[in-house]
């Protein structure tokens, strides 16, 4: 979406790169390696990112070109990658070919699951989009084999793209489960419940929190699944045939290292700084919400600064892990700053809390007050800072992976429900209804969360119905390398979408029980669409996107 | 980017005179030409800007039809009350193409002269008989799922991309042009050329000729029309009928063909 671009500028031997990056810290570290500089001599700034989707996880050569040209010319240099080159010079999701063999008894209980994956990578890299990772954990099955093969081709190096691995993998797995349900004449939800994984059979660990069953049930109820007549082409609305499909979605709940600084300032504001990024997911807002939650300082008095390597090192915005990663660090840094403030309140002469044990002090509503007394009885926090002639007090904390991560398998789950309307006279297929139910832990911000899921569904509909990079078979060059010919879903393709969040905080991941949800929504979408297409038309589409020629024979 | 000259014409005579040097081209909305210049597919030496020509009116004809100026923007034409009432197929066709921003710029004359979306025409790294006569057709053995199936030749299988022209074909429009040799009118059915051995020639316009306006005959009594676009996956067609039934009506087809066609 947003294209890649770099502005490089040198101040003596110090390099500043204005980037569009999902990971400024990694970008800085790689820049230092490539350009043979000390890390301290490179600053990478990426305050706002128009989109990342994985293509901006890692630096690309244009960044170094800008740096070298700027050095040579002695002035700032901007290098931007035009749309057509976005198809060749930066990352993309590789093509995947998968083969699935299922063994099941007549009741639909899986006995064997064989998953083979073939994927290309470039001649110069070994990048693998791991599609085998999910195979052993999604369903209960005694015999699972998943093998992934890689071939080197003369194409650009692929990278992770939104929901890497599980997005292509779940198209195959969930399509296979739907075919199993059809073959055995069992409801698609029922066949999944009969193979419900009560523990992660792949890692042999218990789940930290899994409520997929509730996601199926809630979704089925809200979507009217019980009205579904399993017979192909049996449901009509006017001259259109309706098809109802569903699929599971899932994404791992990750949490990594992060360092955050939170400063209580004498002007009554709070400032937070972290070298992580907001890639359009609402990370700025998330920081302010957590700080406000712990201090009572209103959101409009909290200033969050992200995307700059001059700040404490934060996580890459990838793998739906940034939120879960930074939340503990924000909370602890805020608490540390507040504790310092409370000590100052107790130890400063002239303070209304002089000689009170700091343990008996609290900060609520932006005020310092005694435990057990109303916040209004206390003093606004800037007053305490001023008594001590302080411009501010910092808390700076580094947090690491969840301690429970070794004992538990942590994943989000959910279910998509899709209705398609098919006009057989002209073989026109439209998505007519959509519902997604997500078991993704605690949502910190309902608006940004919903935005992530709905955006994923739009992308998922694009994957199912339109998106495809076409390579000229003679030379490997993408021929549809522009927005007129590479078709993405537009508003006219999208019906009203709905999503429901189940409220099951995963407190084994972090105190707030919050998981990242940037990617889960895309997994499973395409197979919900093709299952609905099968239900409407009897045509099983195993190769995306769904094309009109797949459907013409039914018209 | 390369250098080119630019001049502005204020009347049709001046426009025709200005465009006479070789390598000169008219530019109206620019939605095709400027795109192709950015891609190096078109490299005019001189652009004659005709946006100031007084050809931007839609007028009722005394016999009941419409006269549409070549400079009428696609948005204005699509939303014109008379067009919507008399020729719904034309309004629907216009609104089914491009985006509001493009339709605000694109003109009636320019739309008739849109160039193909063939990938290989638009990429100067490939041979293309339409772009460089005699160089070969890359689509023939390339990725050609979106290309024409009817009316093609071994030299070109590109399609014409205009929705508007398909509707005009169904409505039997007449195209009026002016050139150094005077004025003439061309029925739309005689306007476009099949690729044959000269796919670079897409229509019968002579060098320097400019479209001034298009006329539409009054709609037949009780006629109804509708534009149905089957977008991606490809294929579209339009039908006009006299009785409200498709049977016996007029059917015009779009990009399965090198030019808008009536089977």
Plain-language structure description:
The complex is a heterodimer of chains A (about 550) and B (about 260). Chain A is α+β, with helices and mostly antiparallel strands. Chain A folds into three domains: about 5-85, 2-Layer Sandwich (Aldehyde Oxidoreductase, domain 4), CATH 3.30.365; about 95-255 and about 405-550, Aldehyde oxidase/xanthine dehydrogenase, molybdopterin binding domain (Aldehyde Oxidoreductase, domain 4); about 260-400, 2-Layer Sandwich (Aldehyde Oxidoreductase, domain 4), CATH 3.30.365. Chain A is about 25% helix and about 25% strand. Chain A has helices at about 25-35, 60-75, 135-140, 165-185, 190-195, 210-225, 285-295, 320-345, 380-385, 445-465, 525-535, 550, and strands spanning about 5-10, 15-20, 40-45, 75-80, 95-105, 110-120, 145-150, 235, 240-250, 260-265, 270-275, 300-305, 360-365, 365-370, 380, 390-400, 410-425, 430-440, 495-500. A five-stranded mixed sheet of chain A has the order 8-9-17-18-19, with helices on both faces. The longest helix of chain A has 26 residues, at about 320-345. Chain A is globular, with a radius of gyration of 26 Å. Chain B is α+β, with helices and mostly antiparallel strands and about 260 residues long. Chain B has one domain: Uridine Diphospho-n-acetylenolpyruvylglucosamine Reductase, domain 3, CATH 3.30.465. Chain B is about 20% helix and about 20% strand. Chain B contains eight helices and eleven strands. Chain B has helices spanning about 10-20, 35-40, 75-80, 80-85, 90-95, 100-105, 110, 165-170; strands at about 5-10, 25, 45-50, 60, 65-70, 175-180, 180-185, 210-215, 225-230, 235-240, 250-255. In chain B, strands 4-5-8-6-7 form a five-stranded antiparallel sheet. Chain B has a three-stranded parallel sheet with strand order 1-3-2, with no helix packed on it. In chain B, a hairpin with a 5-residue loop joins strand 4 (about 60) and strand 5 (about 65-70). In chain B, helix 5 (about 90-95) runs antiparallel to helix 8. The longest helix of chain B is centred in the middle third of the chain and has 9 residues, at about 165-170. Chain B is globular, with a radius of gyration of 18 Å. Mean pLDDT of chain B is about 90; it is low at about 235-250. At the A-B interface, loops of A face loops of B.
